[in-house]
Amino acid sequence: MGLLKLIIVPSLVAIAAYFAYTTLVPQQKADFPRDGWFGTGAKRPDDTKITPFKVAVPDAVLEDLKKRLASSRISHEVLEDANSFEYGFNVNYLKQVIDHWQNKFDWRKQEAILNTWPQFTTEIEGVKVHYYHAKPDAKKYKKVVPLLLVHGWPGNVFEFYKFLPMLLDPVAHKVASNADIAFEVIAPSIPGYGFSEAPKKTGFSQLAAARVFKKLMERVGHKKYYLQGGDWGSIITSQLARMYPESVYGLHLNMASATPNTLKGLFYTVVGSIIPHHLFKHKHHHSYSTLKLFTEVLLPESGYMHIQATKPDTVGTGLNDSPLGLAAYILEKFSTWTNGEYRKLPDGGLTKKFTLDELLTVVTIYWTQGNIVSSQRFYKECFADPHNFPMTNQYITVPTAHAQFPHELFDTQPAEMLATGCNLTSQVVMPDGGHFAAFEQPTHLAKHVFSFVAGLERKKHK
Ligand SMILES: *[C@@H]1O[C@H](CO)[C@@H](O)[C@H](O)[C@H]1NC(C)=O
User: Fold this and answer.
1) Is 423 touching ligand 1 by the criterion CB < 6 Å?
2) Backbone angles phi, psi at 51, to 5 degrees
3) Of 91, 148, 413, 422, which is least surrounded by CB within 10 A?
4) What is the domain-level CATH number for residue 324?
């Protein structure tokens, strides 16, 4: 009882204080700039032409990479009693990864996969934006609906190489819930990532990315569309849904959380951690705990975020100069975020769900484009943009669906909690999978996207 009092009394005080604060103190009205300029020099009108694009890394860049890998310097050993990923990337396994990269990895083969679908670039707010724009066979599908698909960090559009074909031809891949619908997919590289140019000025936040992608959709001819995203993709598409609800039919997320800025949200956050089995319907959430999220996930796993949100250029300089360092930094996330238990394994469980060729393709894109620093700056801009968090606090009115993957460390909110922040029409807890859902569990993800969209499309025509 003593312990319970220790939790409940301060919680009630906190709720009361928060309630008083939100009702008595006028809250900042969420708004956002309608335009921006991240190009070099003074603002000028964008060059709106659309140019076809193919990935084609020069031989010299690949030869330089091989040379650097050959002269890698490793002078540390794993601790004798910690042959795992618990201290970070296990150096024993790193040697195998580097050997594969040097001697077995075939970039040209991966490049051909990247060039499977039509790609383009166009200038928006001064930045050259790269995107896939792929359409289904119009003879096969009666109804083709546009979808903006957004990736995250430390990923890029390569993560979609198995997911994209499912969206384009759901019947062939057996993921359709309605054989008539397929997606026209627009999948951009976030500026500063993949094959998009990096912003030249400060302030390119998630809000700016959402606005730029809205302009991109308009430029390719779509005023209204569906959204899908995980990681930054989930933050960007959620912001787009808040900023331009009139442009969005529906929002599908594979990472989602509501800020507890309503009384109900705060109640679930606090009391839901004490008696989750009484408040949350799904048994997956009967062990929900905000405290556990802080102590077991945020504290031990968010160091990278603090570094990138404060001094991205410092850590990025080293990563951009060493392929070995870059691979360790990026692939450690592909281990832990796929399943937290993999931290205990000598090889980080990296090839349980992915092949080394797949993983090294993600890394090689960062290496050859030389853009790890600009990808990391996106964290700094997230916290620096004064409009970002007030906007995040706003309720999402458009129909929203959530695919929750059980090993996604950061994504633990029950439907009841999430529904305090968005118009939640469906949440499914998937049987397996982690953070990189499109890359790891494309079939589960695609099936849920199609069932969500089929439901909304049926309603449209009633
Ligand atoms: C949720 O979405 C539905 C369907 O578009 C809409 O009718 C309803 O008004 C929305 N609810 C809220 C609270 O915005």
Assistant:
1) yes
2) -115, 130
3) 91
4) 3.40.50.1820
